[in-house]
Amino acid sequence: MTETTASLFAGAAGYYVRYRAAYPDDVFAGIAARLGLDGRQRALDLGCGPGTATLPLAGYVAEVVAVDPEPAMLAEGRRLAGRSGVGTVTWVEGDSSGLGRLGLGAFDLAVMAASFHWMDRPVTLQALDGLIRPAGAVVVVTGSVSGTARDVPDRPTWADAVVAVRERWIPFRRRWRGDAGSDRRTYSQVRREHRDVLGASAFHRVESFEVRWGRRHDVESLVGLQMTMPDSTPGALAERAEGFRDDLRAELIKIEPSGVFVEPIRTEVLIGRRE
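The line above is the sequence of Methyltransferase family protein; the predicted structure tokens follow.
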């Protein structure tokens, strides 16, 4: 993640905490089982945000170093850790481009949860090769692919209203150029490449598992969730934010007067090891 990314997410930290769903327990239990985590390991959470992965991960390791370029995200993470009684996390302002300058030490694993697509992935993995101990691993957790994503088979009908409002208010579809020299691509395209990028790195032995789950929304939680998406954070929408929210509320109530929305989600976990 870069400082440009940090500015894009400025003002979004509170929305993240309130409206982004926590990962299911099965995600971290699955990681722990596959890596043999027993409370003695040292972990890096790169692009940690407000600690969505940091805090559950802390229950399986001795220490987590959580790195993010956005100070407000780190502040929320510290607050939530204090409220939860988690005292084994070190919060560090920084990003993937400066890992070697942060003096973080060695790790048994690095986790990138809904953040890998923002990075120059080959360069980041090369840097991690110098930080991860010989028997360690890199873990990539996809952004929980929600029912609003176009490539989800069980996409709910209300998602069409979300997409239509986004297309009215957001004049372009965000594309990523994290990897050096790459063309701009959509998030779905970049996400599908994660396995290949890992396979071409030092962490080329890749295994994966998937967790399917779901959550219920009301109108306000769906509107708030949009404030966490890169194209529609308060910083990205600026003066258009209020109009966007009002338009989306009206469309959601029109399509589902009950105000109850069920979102199917699938989370994929990729684990890369050297041998």
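Note on the example: The mean pLDDT is 88. The first helix runs from residue 3 to 8.
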